[in-house]
Amino acid sequence: MKLVISTLLFFSSLVQSFGQVLIEDSVRNVYGFAIAAPQPQDMERFVQFIDQELGPNGINTLVLRVDYGYEYESYPNLRNENPLSKKEVKKIVAAAQKWNIQLIPQINLLGHQSWAGDLEMLLTEYPEFDETPHVSMPREYKWPNEDGLYCKSYCPLHPKVHEVVFALVDEVTEVFESKAFHAGMDEVFYIGDDKCPRCAGKNNAQLFADEVGRIRDHLAQSGRELWIWGDRMLEGEISGLGMWEASENGTEASIDLVPKDIVVCDWHYNVAEPTPAIFASRGLQVVSCFWNKEEVALAHMEMMDFFKANSNETMRPKYLGTMQTIWSPAKPFLDAYYEVEGSSQSSLDQAASFKAMLKYIKEQE
């Protein structure tokens, strides 16, 4: 009898192990890192970081916020003051390819067309694209404010806006040799403004979803995948997620209207909200994202592993993995990561979160 029980336990263990192997082999597993593209003067250090830290430690996806920090040829007037050259970008590409890291450039589309009291390059050069031209940029920015100004948006229905932004998208994806593009699209507070001659009276969820669809369709022409942040597709009031991590201006219904082959980066920085299950249940691929708290980073990673291990064969492939986000320029983060004296506490917190992620990855080997 003992022999029978032992044999059954052995085969049960073998089946579980084999089943786990099948799960791991069949599911795309993202270990991601998102940060602003480095300044030209920090290029060599950043490439070294890829070669010595990201690649050897299992990071397989690198999202770089490029925005207007590249020497665009199609619209050179949209370059910022210190853009990366094509030669410099190719150094990043070579380092990423060496370690088989998926490189995904980002340009903020729709929202985040301003920051604090300054317009970004698109609305500076093309003010006619502004969704809310009646809202003036303040000399001294404060939040909250009477205009509800956090960041400006471009009007998604302006007949000329996509001619410009898609040219930038094409350039940046080509130079980075990328198979995907991150369009941002988080924290869109200005949409469907009642003073916009094109958007007034339209459904905000449909406006948002249609813009996602336009970008997705454009990328699909070159076989590329669209990534976006997920906050505008979550409901903020009933859920308690609030107006930052979710929507309180009517865009949440877009979760059922957007194309199903996009990748949603679902960010929550104070606790690991279980919202990846919402996106997966709607048929969307999802990456769970964290920022500056070690315990929250670990909770995100454990949560996504739990979802993968305890989901059916339809849902499981939707849980792509996790991503560390860095919301500072590359230099202060690198200073903190390498423990350079004088690093700010905020940068040190980001670095500690990322180190916790790397430790977790190592423990799974």
TrEMBL record:
Keyword Hydrolase: yes
Signal peptide: none
Entry annotated with the keyword Hydrolase: yes
Record-annotated Glycoside hydrolase family 20 catalytic domain positions: 82-289
Keyword annotations of the record: Hydrolase
Family named by the database record: Belongs to the glycosyl hydrolase 20 family.
Protein name according to UniProt: Family 20 glycosylhydrolase
Organism: Reichenbachiella ulvae
